[in-house]
Amino acid sequence: QDARLFTHLSVEGNLRFALKRAPASGQAVSYDQVLKVLDLAPLLDRNTLSLSGGERQRVALGRTLLSQPELLLLDEPMSALDVRRKGELLPFIERVPEAFNLPMIFVSHAVDEVVRLADEAIILHAGKVTGRGPLPDIFQGSEMAGLTGHFEAGAVVEAKVLRQDTAYQLTVMESGGQEVQMPMVSSLAAGDAVRLRIRARDVSVAIERPTGISTRNCLKATVSEVIAEPDTAFAEVVARMGDQAIRARITRQAADELDLSPGMDVLLLIKSVSFDRRVLISPKS
């Protein structure tokens, strides 16, 4: 959470300090590679006190990598950063495990960070492990919904980019054999694999295809579970789209009037603008 850089040394001095004291054997992480992956070359001559919060964390990460670690433990490294600085730092952290062939344990309370970075998630609650598994599976479970609260509960699904619709500035993807679109993410190209975070509160349920509405994504799915919440107005519907599950938070009245039950075919309506582009990433191979 604190970069702990040496203020009497430049950025380059901080990096070479770690490099000189690293174990002589191995040297799997090279100086030039760290500069390239973390884009540190433009900062080398800077005084550490003149760096932004995101820049300081990049330098600290580079210094750690040059110490030749076998494992990285990042304990909420973005907790002191504002949204813009966090958005600048996330892509660099995302590159590290693959670029340096290093396993990484990332500790966070922020759902968007977990979705962006994790392949596998471990849920800790009251000092105990209450859930563990691949990220999409964890988001389908009740443990995550209980910890994040109903406002943030949802699902993570995987999709592949089909094309960029430049006329309407939309990115068109395929998930579970169906098209999904969202406002254009220009950094993506056809064939890219991405994760989509879909909040339950952004999903509506229909039993026949609606007409004359602005919602663009109308996905076929099969209800697997309907969870009514006693003493509240709400119910949670879990529907499967192929091997992926999506959650919808609707009223109990709507669930009853639609007569929703397991095994029933439905349509899930998701606004294109509801997808969180800040956490849209390519799943790691």
Describe the structure.
The protein has 285 residues and is α+β, with helices and mostly antiparallel strands. It is 27% helix and 32% strand. The protein has eight helices and 13 strands. The chain has helices spanning 11-21, 31-37, 53-66, 83-100, 111-117, 135-140, 142-148, 252-257, and strands spanning 72-75, 104-107, 120-125, 128-134, 154-165, 170-175, 178-183, 193-199, 203-206, 217-228, 234-241, 244-251, 265-270. It has a five-stranded antiparallel β-sheet with strand order 9-13-10-11-12. α1 packs parallel to α3 (53-66) and α3 runs parallel beside α4 (83-100). The radius of gyration is 22 Å and the shape is elongated. The mean pLDDT is 87.
Q: Mean pLDDT, as a whole number?
A: 87
Number of strands: 13
| Major beta-sheet overview | 5 strands, antiparallel
For the biggest β-sheet, the strand order reads 9-13-10-11-12
Backbone shape: elongated
From N to C, what is the helix and strand string? HHHEHEHEEHHEEEEEEEEHE
Can you give the helix content as a percent range?
25-40%
End-to-end C-alpha gap: 28 Å
**Rg estimate, integer Å:** 22 Å
Uncertain spans: none
Helix and strand arrangement:
Blueprint: H1 11-21, H2 31-37, H3 53-66, E1 72-75, H4 83-100, E2 104-107, H5 111-117, E3 120-125, E4 128-134, H6 135-140, H7 142-148, E5 154-165, E6 170-175, E7 178-183, E8 193-199, E9 203-206, E10 217-228, E11 234-241, E12 244-251, H8 252-257, E13 265-270
Parallel strand pairs: 1-2
Antiparallel strand pairs: 3-4, 5-6, 5-8, 6-7, 9-13, 10-11, 10-13, 11-12
Helix pairs in contact: 1-3, 3-4
